[in-house]
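Interim report, section 4.2 (structural modelling).
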Amino acid sequence: MFSVIWAVLGMTAGVYVAAELVWPTLDFGQQWLSFGRLRTLHTNGVIFGFGVSALMGTAFYSVQRTCHVPLFAPKLAWFCCFAWQICVLLGGISLLAGWNGGKEYAELEWPFDIAITLVWVCFAIVFFGTIARRRIKPIYVSNWFYGALIIVIAMLHIVNSLAIPVTISKSYSIFSGAQDAIVQWWYGHNAVGFLLTGGFLGMMYYFLPKHADRPIWSYRLSIIAFWAFVYSYIWAGPHHLHYNAIPEWVQSLAVVMSLILLAPSWATMINGIMTVSGAWQKLRTDPALKFIVLSLAFYGLATFEGPMMAIKSVNVVSHFTDWTIGHVHSGALGWNALITFGTFYFLIPRLMGTGLYSIRLANIHFWMALAGTMLYILAMWGAGVSQGLLWLSLDEIGELSFSFKDIMASMPPYYLLRFVAGLVFLAGALLMTFNLYMTIKGRRTVQVQPPEVRSHQV
Amino acid sequence: MMNGIGLHKKLEENTGLLIFGILFVSSIGGLVQVLPSIFQESLKTPTVTTRPYSAVQLIGRDIYIRESCSVCHSQQVRPLLAEVKRYGPYTRAGEAVYDRPFLWGSKRTGPDLHRVGGKYSDIWHRLHLINPRDVVRNSIMPAYPWIAQRAANADGDIQLKMRALQKLGHPYTDGEIEAAPGQLEGLMEIDALIAYLQVLGTSRGPGDTP
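Predicted structure of the assembly:
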């Protein structure tokens, strides 16, 4: 049991390491010399460093508590933790060195693709092994989402990374052109779907009821929403290829399924918000809960915006513009980062057997995170909508109204605002790092008490 | 409804069934929507004038990938009046069959590049790549001075690359592969990249005026 607790601690440390790897790249790359490489490092760092480490850590933490058993193969869990950090670290270096597969969010070259697959298999063994020997008969809903994360990401990653290696740092995809595009966005969209949405919903389903100290509002709704989510997300990928050279029916199908996707997305959001209902007074005293509730609001916003942008007549304006970047960040900052921060504020003091160092600082962080995210989205909406409309604008004799350069020239104010927004958000995250560091440093006992499990009967 | 709940009770009490259920439900979309396009011949049939990249162009393309040019430049002219006016004939699937991976992109921080071939002179590209602000005053594109200082064949892997592509069905002859290192001799990376940019989008679809 002891080793398990330390395994959990190790995961959380992994989350730290990863988070620190991530923040320095946040937004700074706008005009750096090697923007192309840094931007790749940024996306991979946040998704695979920050995102996956947080998911792996919380999955290992919550699966033990929802199954009432210690981790299956705790040593393998340790291996997952460290091997993953090494993958992200070396992978990041390789991206800076220019090893690049060229597919968005799958840029890492084939040696890393294989390493990632191996770590992922270990992750699956530990996770499902723990579930298999659980002492509670039903598998709790958070574990379905974590399970879907593990299974579907494995499927997407393996298919999309299929390639013929040339040298250690170079390979060619076995798919080409239009087909490669369809496969890539099947992967790309669902990496967002099952990692950044589904995985974090698993986090929400465990930590939100714990915070609020109330059971999930509707169990039945969670079942329906889960399966509808798993079924419909997969179809939406080609909405990243509207008006591109792929078959029309594939695009149309993606529009329809993207709109349908709104239903399970919002069902889950409503389920989450209603769970807090009756515990609203806690929002005043618990900064962690505040983070999670706000993250659900952003989740609702982003999952509404997404289907809207998937409609072709909206997409014609939004595609290729900074609007897309804004949309991604309302999800990544507003939803993923905020819920993870909330989870940190909840988890670290518990794991340390002590209270949070400063609730005041956490509250300040809350407002900085909110301001940063809002500013970021506003800047990108402004930039994106003007780009989209100005690019398409024709004058009265049917000629282009503006040259690309003219439109570019109107962008600096938006980009500056975006930089400031990123800075505010980053400063908030640094404040949190300090707060959590002081919490860990100030712990009273070395021996860590596992939190009591209250929600289930054995 | 009670039946549905009963069914789900089985699923959520059995790890294997749950895993299988997730795998099954999540693969339907892929099977119906993605798999058919893998077998759709029209998506992998080159247009009449589309040729595989020459050794020099291929090296240039791999530099384009290495520097992640595609995160700021799309290569996809959409079939919209304003786009065709701004960039040229819209992109056809058949023009991309030798693109591994595809580089259509998702963001235009800079302009689309699919029809950039032949639009500017080699000298313009050279100046622009070394310092974009020398030719476009307010450009926010990064400068790439290092590609002017590195030999195009510095990695010496051109024949390996072409053989790998040959295996994937690109119609390179053994003679072409034999001659490849010779073609790269004396060239810098910047030359290769320019060769790639100049061939981009030059194989137009039937009926397009050049």
